Amino acid sequence: MAESLIKNQVSEQWGLVRNDLRDEFGESAFSSWLEPMAIGGMASGRVKMFVPTRFMKDWILKNYSDRIQSIWQEHNPEIKEVYFEVKASCGMDSSRLVSNNSASETEAPVLNTAPIVAPCHSLVPASGVEDISAPLDSRYTFANFVVGKPNEFAYAAARRVAESKDVSFNPLYLYSSVGLGKTHLMHAIAWHIRQQDPSRTVLYLSAEKFMYKFVQALRSKDTMHFKEQFRSVDVLMIDDVQFISGKDATQEEFFHTFNALIDEGKQIILSADKSPTELDGMESRLKTRLGCGLVADIHPTTYELRLGILQSKVMAMGSDVPPEVIEFLASHISTNVRELEGALKRLVAHAELIGRQITLDSTKEILKDLLCACDRKITVDEIQTKVAEYFKIRIADLRSERRERSVASPRQIAMYLAKKLTVRSLPDIGRKFDRDHTTVMHAVKKVEELMQTDSALSEDILLLTRILGA
Ligand code: ADP
Ligand code: MG
Predict the structure, then answer these.
(1) How far is the CA of 309 from the centre of ligand 1 (A)?
(2) What's the predicted TM-score (pTM) here?
(3) Is residue 362 located within the same domain as residue 463?
(4) What is the pLDDT of residues 198-248, one digit of tens each?
(5) Quick check: is 120 in a domain?
(6) With a 6 A CB cut-off, is 145 part of the ligand 1 pocket?
(7) DSSP codes joined into one string, 230-251
(8) Atom of ligand 1 nearest to the CA of 137
(9) Cβ(242) to ligand 1 under 6 A?
(10) How far is the CA of 183 from the centre of ligand 1 (A)?
(11) CATH number for the domain including 450?
């Protein structure tokens, strides 16, 4: 009898404490972190609280436990300590007994009773990440990745991360322009780890999906589960992180997830189309964090690498493509591997459909549109020549230190055009002007801004673009 009285008292006090907590921390924090707790019991002035996951326990200890204890002591000075234990299952036998606003309703039993009625979904411990992990392409393995000078560093780094038991570089950050093999390498890492050690949870997804999941969690007020899912993995891979540039709330969430995983020694692998420092619209503390592991870029392909890739694809497809056609493709389609692959597939499909051998002539005919586009490739040198001619200055002025407007403005325009009309990276373009990438980035931004208001400048740029044949 006496025991049940104590239980009722504890339950009643918990109701009061909960109300105070909700007032103090607000509805959102309350429902994410505090509401899922349940009373585990009380003995000798010590109150035991159950929390559904270890992650939540850590979080509560760090952020709320002091206040929980002192609020409780305000209601019952005999309480010496409030401590927390993890009890994972939703249907645990202790329960949250007192309804939110009914401190005085003390009828409910305190222990060993009905299962928790409250939102079980937010209490489920980080369960299978399968539902958020994007499917892996079975062709994207290390074995199918052709290594050459432009990608050997990124490849070696990816292999090292995939093979090592402990975290070697964290995060591994891969970057390149499109179609050069970032996604392929990430899938290869994931395949390798899954094969080597199926007990390690690997989560691979695009940054876009990350954001989508986050927004969905916000909408359904289920960010706790979201956090849990992401923070329970051993390896987190996020593809195309540039996507979250300028998306502040998602960045914030990503930053916390990132830090939590790094702190726990979990491996993170990221890809993007730019180096961390070049990611416009990304908070600087995040940029710094992104670049603090190993940053590996994949350079534009060389002729030899394109040849190698084509040969390996032809072999994999089991089709008959004459060597002169392969050489022709390798020298004429230099944009990216995806286009190269696309061209080859088109040739093979065409030959199969009409039942004729692939020849150099048929190749030129079938790929006419693609080849035209590639032939018109513009170089930074060409841009410098045309811009200098147009503004009647010397090419050397574009690279000089001179700061007069008559030179500085054409220089910025040339940098802008180089960024817009070529696939060169900012550092590459910078080198052509004897400047660093930040100067180029600044020039591009400046010209973009000026174009909004300065119609003469817009016209210059339009004309130059035409002159360059873009
Ligand atoms: P990114 O993610 O950098 O845009 P992907 O990884 O999607 O590029 O690569 C585009 C296509 O090119 C994929 O089909 C991929 O298999 C292929 N590819 C890229 N690099 C290589 C390589 N070194 N060896 C074999 N295939 C490659
Ligand atoms: Mg990709």
Answers:
(1) 10
(2) 0.59
(3) no
(4) 899 999 999 988 988 888 888 888 888 888 888 889 999 999 999 999 888
(5) no
(6) yes
(7) HHT-SEEEEE-GGGGTT-HHHH
(8) 16
(9) no
(10) 7
(11) 1.10.1750.10
